[in-house]
Amino acid sequence: MSDENMMKNISKIVFDDFFWITNFFPIHDQVYFTDSNFNNGINLLLKIEKKILVEEVKIKKPFGRYFLAHPTMKHTTAIGASQTDLKICLKSSDFIQNIIFHDFGYLITFVNKTDEQTTTYTNKYNGEFELIDSIKMLENKTIISPILNENLVFTKNNSTGEVFQLDLSTENTIEIKEKIKKVCELQNNLVILTDDFKVLISDKNYENIEVYEDSIFEKQIAAFSEEAFLLSDKENGKTYCSFLNESKTKKPLAGKYFYRLDSFNRELIIAKPLVDRFGNINYYQAPWFIY
After folding, report:
1. Helix or strand or coil: residue 1?
2. Are 240 and 253 in contact (CB under 8 A)?
3. Extended strands (E) in 5-151
4. In principle, which of 79, 86, 195, 236 could form an S-S bond with 46, CB 3.0–4.6 Å?
5. How far apart are CA 160 and CA 283, in angstroms?
6. CB-based contacts of 152-157 (< 8 A; 24+ apart in sequence)
7. Reduced to 3 states, what is the DSSP secondary structure of residue 80?
8. What is the CA radius of gyration of the chain?
9. pLDDT digits over 38-71, tens only?
10. Under DSSP, is residue 259 helix (H, G, I), strand (E, B) or coil?
């Protein structure tokens, strides 16, 4: 089925009991979730098999479901904690910000917040989530892209906002003129969201850059397929599947703005809404599952 035809046959479901999920990261055949919150004593990184997640979501029964129940009784019942399909990978007293797969292991970025300052650091873990080392070249930086060409990532200095392309194997860097929030990878292109919310398209080498969307209203992006990406627009409260064709076709996907947004294999989109049904900003709403 083509991406455009798929947009005509979409469904969505929300499981209110899973409000505790603050972020999500599809990686290979797993989906990782976190409950990170600066008020937590301990933050968890959890995982579920993608196959199980997709099967459970498509059952279309929103109540009495436990496949994404929190594995402790902090956010669920004893039954939920015992029947969840989530497995704990990591516990941390610091906020778990990001996870990417690299070199048969994981790079995980944490945020440490005190009354005096907020700092970030990134650790390298093996496939069993055993700590290998702290990555010094990523201190106070955030990785804002997937791994490109096996070793390249875009990083952002949290103090200055400067963006660099970093080779993780050689530690060589190239400064990027544009101030960037996020980079997504499609088959032959990169999709870039800038600090002033413009959407840019480039080739895989970050060359031949073109403006796709130049409005300055808050947006979020995510990769979707080889030739399309997801674009969520806060100003009009809608989310689209956007295509890299000459006419820049946009197909409506949901009448909602999502501040967290990701997808995998065109099978499932996971999204966290920003505004609740009362019109208030609410970061603790349950994620939407769109398929």
Report:
1. coil
2. yes
3. 12-14, 23-27, 30-34, 43-49, 87-92, 95-102, 105-113, 118-125, 131-134, 141-143
4. 86
5. 26
6. 153/100, 154/180, 154/183, 156/180, 156/181
7. helix
8. 19
9. 999 999 999 999 999 999 999 978 788 999 999 9
10. strand
Residue listed under structure tokens 């049904």? 277
State both tokens at 119.
Answer: 């700092």
Residue 279: burial class (beta carbons within 10 Å; 0-12, 13-18, 19+): exposed
Within 8 A by CB and 6+ apart from 270, the residues are 24, 26, 31, 260, 261, 262, 263, 287, 288, 289, 290
pTM above 0.90, yes or no: yes
Could you count the other beta carbons within 10 Å of the beta carbon of residue 202?
A: 16
Tokens of 281: 């900003």
Type and span of the H or E element at 290: strand 288-290
For 157: left if phi > 0, alpha if psi spans -120 to 50, otherwise beta; the answer is: beta
Contacts of 117 (CB under 8 A, 6+ apart): none
Instruction: Give residue-wise pLDDT tens across range 62-111.
Output: 788 999 999 998 888 899 999 999 999 999 999 999 999 999 999 999 99
**Contact present, 283 and 274 (Cβ < 8 Å):** yes
Helix (H) or strand (E) holding 4: helix 3-6
- DSSP states of 73-90: TTSS-HHHHHH---EEEE
The answer to whether the beta carbons of residues 156 and 175 sit under 8 Å apart is no
